[in-house]
Design a protein that fits this description.
The protein has about 300 residues and is of the alpha/beta class. About 35% of the residues lie in helices and about 20% in strands.
């Protein structure tokens, strides 16, 4: 696999009709329902600003769409971002580094999303860790399923940068994060695509997922790796992974560690909470977590108020 420029080739929606509705009207109605339901579910965060990043799931919408909507709801209406980065971990390919998409745009039933090919090609020149690898994008659902939520919440006035990690090496994630750090700024939004526990029973999923989410919110890459290993050593029946997109989350932490960012848990469910899914013996867990730039709260005491008056 070599860095290369390809001819223009728009990526059609591969998972419409599988992970989410392929009909535009049906998809819009489902998204509207999710966001209406958010109003009765999600907590108020301590923040008054737009998030810098959100961690959201990438399963079929009937399973994880409500959790994703709670995450995307943290983006205030009419927020304008220059770019939206979606960072995901490959489900089908293993390769050293990260796959960019420099061939064209992405399409969903809601319309076309413009890929920032100029920035993608710039990243190719910066490091051999970045590759123009369209095959990694073609059959990857963890990026595509985020787009209808972005289109629904932000409209179409943003450039899209899809990045798929093929590495399983923490040190490579750290290097990639170091390069991407330049674009981890308030003008850009980062979507980190991951599900949580895979296939334990309902109660074990809730326990493991709470532990993993708490580790993420500590904003410490080493702690996350430690907890993932501890989860594995628990020998929980049928637990295949406690964080399927761990390389993406780890890369995020490498960009925020020792920086002034606050991680806030927003909403949790697993597939056992879905009414259409009756089984609770083997479930998959889903969290939405938001990342905000830390701001000091301005508090005036009663005495100070009197003095000001």
């Amino acid at each position: 696999m070599k860095n290369r420029k390809t001819s223009y080739f728009t990526r059609e929606a591969q998972f419409a009709g599988k992970f989410y509705p392929e009909n535009k009207s049906e998809l819009t109605n489902q998204l509207n329902t999710f966001f209406e339901q958010v109003k009765t579910q999600t907590k108020q965060t301590k923040q008054n600003s737009a998030p810098q990043a959100i961690i959201v799931p990438h399963a079929g919408y009937v399973f994880s769409g409500q959790v994703a909507a709670n995450g995307f709801q943290q983006i205030p209406q009419n927020t304008k971002y220059k770019r939206v980065f979606v960072l995901a971990s490959s489900h089908r390919y293993s390769f050293d580094g990260a796959a960019l998409y420099c061939s064209g745009n992405y399409i969903t039933p809601l319309g076309e999303v413009e890929v920032d090919m100029e920035l993608s090609n710039h990243l190719l020149q910066l490091s051999d860790l970045f590759n123009d690898y369209p095959n990694a994008h073609e059959q990857e659902h963890s990026v595509e399923v985020q787009l209808p939520f972005l289109q629904h919440r932000l409209g179409y006035d943003f450039l899209f940068v899809p990045i798929i990690l093929g590495t399983y090496k923490p040190e490579t994630c750290k290097k990639i994060a170091g390069i991407l750090q330049e674009w981890f700024t308030p003008e850009n939004l980062w979507i980190i695509s991951t599900d949580f526990a895979h296939y334990p029973n309902y109660e074990n999923a809730r326990m493991v997922d709470e532990t993993t989410a708490t580790a993420i919110c500590r904003n410490n890459p080493g702690k996350l790796l430690e907890v993932i290993n501890e989860n594995k050593n628990l020998k929980i029946e049928n637990l295949a992974t406690s964080l399927c997109g761990w390389t993406s989350v780890l890369s995020l932490l490498y960009m925020t560690v020792n920086q002034q960012y606050d991680y806030e848990k927003i909403f949790y469910q697993n597939s056992g909470d879905v009414k259409l899914f009756e089984g609770k013996d083997r479930v998959v867990g889903y969290w939405s977590i938001a990342v905000f730039k830390h701001t000091e709260e301005f508090i005036i005491t009663d005495v100070e108020k009197k003095e000001l008056l």
